[in-house]
Amino acid sequence: MTPLARNAAVKLVKNFRMRELEGLMTHLRVFGPLPEVSDPTASAAAAKIGKPVINLPNPFIPRKNPKTNKWREPKYSLRRQADLVKKAHELGRLDVIPPGPKKNAFELRMKRVQQSLPANLPFNVEKTEPYRIPKTSKERNLDRKIKEKKFHIAVFEDDQRYFEEELQRYLPQFKLDEAAEANKDNLQETPEEAKAREGRLGNKEMLDLEIDTAIGDAEGFREELAKLVAQKEAYMKGQAALTPWDTPVAWAGEVKDEKTPGSELGTRLYAGKKRMFKGHLWERELAHRRRRHSILMRDMEARVERYKTYYKKRKPNPLKPSRYSKPPKLPF
């Protein structure tokens, strides 16, 4: 997807969302209050950015005016719905489009395509990256600091793991040295052995100190990381107020999708029929036409004879008056 096409798709989706947000008061004035809508996805997204869920009327379905009892067609035609769904899919943000006939059909078609693909493809299927609002310099700076803190925490955790493994490796010897240190007055050992034992005990103290230091440093960086994460969340909540088009929305209205036989498999043309293809009209009428033709050919001689003798019976002599003359008509 080229940058120009991506920008056009972003502009189209943004304008759609802003138009619906700005037209909420007009809808309430004409159609009255909206019913309560429960959308777990929108609620989770709203809780993440700390904003309430906005209920909007679904512009892809018809609505009945409570004052005139007349139905009004959907605000967007099927062609415009299909265009919005296509652009949102190219951006990877199909969630910002309300449910409708074209969106449901598109999702069903994508599901069929996904199921038809083999498990192990010989090539990589390119997935569309979801469109996100471009990051500001402050957000990028916070992300960089958070990444650094996570790196330092991982380093200290690796150090702690390494020193603990070393301690476990020489732990039996350290226990023997500690027991010998406690009873060194009753031991008979050379000065070299005593010096080696003291060195091993010093190594154990050093390992314990390194483990405690790694744990303390990791805890310090975790506290700093928690502060940075809280700072970023507060900043993102403030930024969310500046991008109202990306506000979580719960769409009011039920989409009545007609169940067409064969729509799940993509065979709507022949599903639910006794025969897949009845044939052309001339093919279906061919047997009847041949039967009628055979009857006409069978009786042709009698029909010709009857035609030729019709006037011969009525008027054998054409020069004489007819025997079957009708009564004269009055001139008025």
Automatic annotation (TrEMBL):
<feature type="domain" description="Large ribosomal subunit protein mL59">
    <location>
        <begin position="36"/>
        <end position="308"/>
    </location>
</feature>
<dbReference type="InterPro" id="IPR040922">
    <property type="entry name" value="Ribosomal_mL59_dom"/>
</dbReference>
<dbReference type="InterPro" id="IPR037507">
    <property type="entry name" value="Ribosomal_mL59"/>
</dbReference>
<dbReference type="GO" id="GO:0003735">
    <property type="term" value="F:structural constituent of ribosome"/>
</dbReference>
<feature type="region of interest" description="Disordered">
    <location>
        <begin position="311"/>
        <end position="332"/>
    </location>
</feature>
<dbReference type="GO" id="GO:0005762">
    <property type="term" value="C:mitochondrial large ribosomal subunit"/>
</dbReference>
<protein>
    <recommendedName>
        <fullName>Large ribosomal subunit protein mL59 domain-containing protein</fullName>
    </recommendedName>
</protein>
<dbReference type="Pfam" id="PF18126">
    <property type="entry name" value="Mitoc_mL59"/>
</dbReference>
